Request: fold
Amino acid sequence: MSQREENLTLPPSDHYPMGNGIRTSAEYIAGLQDDREVWTKGERVADVTQEPGIARGIATLGKFLDRQHDTTWQDTITYVHDDGVRSAMAFKPSKTKEDVMARGRAYYEWAKWSAGMFGRTPDYKNASVMAFASATDFLAQGTEGQADFAANMTNFYNYVRTNDKVLTHTLVNPSVSHKQASEGKFSQDVALHVVKETDAGIIVKGARLLATLGPSADEIEVFPSTVLRASEDNLPFAFAFALPIATPGLKLICRDTYDQGKSRFDAPLASQFEEMDAVVIFDNVLVPWERIFMYRQPELCNQAFGATNAVVHMAHQVACGKLAKAEFVTGLLCAITKATGRDKDLALKGMIAEVMFMTETVRALLFQAEHEAHEDQYGNMIPSRRPLDTSRNLFPKFYPRMMEILQQMGSSSLMATPCELDFNNAMSADVEQYFQVANLDARERVSLYRLAHDVAVSGFGSRQTLYERFFFGPPHLMHAAYFDLYPRDEMIERVDAMIDGTN
Ligand SMILES: Cc1cc2nc3c(=O)[nH]c(=O)nc-3n(C[C@H](O)[C@H](O)[C@H](O)COP(=O)(O)OP(=O)(O)OC[C@H]3O[C@@H](n4cnc5c(N)ncnc54)[C@H](O)[C@@H]3O)c2cc1C
Reply:
């Protein structure tokens, strides 16, 4: 066993007590009943697990965690770590191509349960923690007197793995001026920064965008934004750390909930998959040295996700999730045309074929990424980055187009639907009569279109489109990063050869 592999099974420090591995729903829910400061609808939440608008999403995630114990899924979504602890598959260090494939199968399985609508299942962050812990040589470069950042990450990895913690993360500083932000500067009025160092750790103050799943998570990773200019001015903004959500001074302000308490029939997605996003405010929060992974090194912070290949593992999880989501939208469109008997219509077939092209593009890129898996500089097997980067930059364009096609096909049926109660009141005979369609009775038709409504029209559905556009970061920066990594020289040489006549 190499030194690095041994580190991955080190006993954690006092800050990181070991757990027993995969948790149940009951354990996850009990863990959320703490002193966390979550605000919604103008009030502080007493218990997120009971809070209307948040609680049902928590119950869904709990149900998914329970599946780790179910033999139907256990071999696909969990593994037994070298220390004997059964852990979520996304924590498994990748040593072989089969490990990469196994990770992909687990991500895809998790995503299918919500049709990709619960974007922030724990495997997303688990994958990045695994990557950071497998590349601790990178973090060791930043070690300062007060802390051993590499050991901190190893301990954090073992802590979240053996306790099956649910993580969120926040990467982006709010900006008061786009000009300032595009110059790689931040405003201390709003951006999260260090105000003081103490023997116990650093004190931080400011805000961060955005923590999807924040109110329902155990821990938050506060990692660097990737555009820190390496200057003295930026040192107070250069850090990476993790904290329990229930840390004094850490406050989450939720957006409006999209779970309005409707029945599963009336709101098939919002009633299950509200994962809640929150802005995170740090009101002079103490971050212990043991919980810091990078500090005062903007250049290191800027490289962190790329150099550790965390971005590759996260993009792998994303591609698997987007495949499940694209397949679901394809299935929904096909179900609608089948229901209306318009599945012989050439124009509609053409519209759905466009969605099929997008779905198959994601599948092909994922296939390429997994089959071109290779060893990285730390001796880990990683999927090929470029196809995954291509997929994650294409999907923010694919998904809004899919929704446009769904809206064009569904038209007013996407909203002109009675609710579940109308099948049991004085209107029921009318509803049964007037809402039937060629191949479905009224109840079946209404349930299908209410699902389509929740995908493409409702608040829940609109947020899904916004999520797909932005969750991986600002598109202009993502595109520019893709351009920078693309092997352009050989192609330019061919252009030059055509001009020179040396082709
Ligand atoms: C539903 C949802 C969930 C999210 N979840 C998370 C999360 O869990 N964790 C997390 O860290 N972040 C999360 N994000 C935040 C996401 O990282 C940010 O929204 C994203 O980075 C964009 O930042 P911004 O919202 O400040 O937009 P802005 O930076 O204000 O950008 C707005 C638009 O202007 C464009 N733009 C800005 N500056 C320029 C420029 N100089 N040149 C050209 N175009 C420019 C951007 O590309 C974008 O299209 C989430 C976002 C959404 C919508």
